[in-house]
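> tool_call: predict_assembly(chains=two)
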Amino acid sequence: DAKTTQPPSMDCAEGRAANLPCNHSTISGNEYVYWYRQIHSQGPQYIIHGLKNNETNEMASLIITEDRKSSTLILPHATLRDTAVYYCIRFPGGYNKLIFGAGTRLAVHP
Amino acid sequence: DTGVSQDPRHKITKRGQNVTFRCDPISEHNRLYWYRQTLGQGPEFLTYFQNEAQLEKSRLLSDRFSAERPKGSFSTLEIQRTEQGDSAMYLCASSLVGGRSGNQPQHFGDGTRLSIL
């Protein structure tokens, strides 16, 4: 049971921001929100994670709502190379296995 | 680049044969994980090691599967008497857990794609 809900697919124009939503309404206080992506024929790539506060790194920004029931991954200027399946995962601190759902298939088009 | 390395990238074998895959984790990482991914699905956890100790095995890991990490560095995953249903991508990941850095994210290799004829 992945326990997160993501839209199955999204489209984005190249150069525009891609905003990928994730619902995790039953998240526990000690569970982080992790985002990975998987480009065709490659292994999953770590993007970003957060607990309560919004986070930003060189790849993306993560916005977590105040009640922590949902989050949004933002790719500020999507490129064709961002076409991938994006996974939102709940991950308790100190836990071990990642539980992947079906993810969101993001298609970036020219 | 000293990321997670997996070998081979592709393996084609006949049903009933044994196969072995190797994973070399990021050098300072103390945890190593194996996942399996079938077409159109997200990866599924198989097992993980803390240094050389295998600490958890999924129900997906039948008796035909065995994993080792003998010196706490590289790991091997062996499948005996392969079946059609074993066709999948086998992914390895590693992470650094504990210490001053806290729990770091898992980083994945590009997997070994197994095809059973």
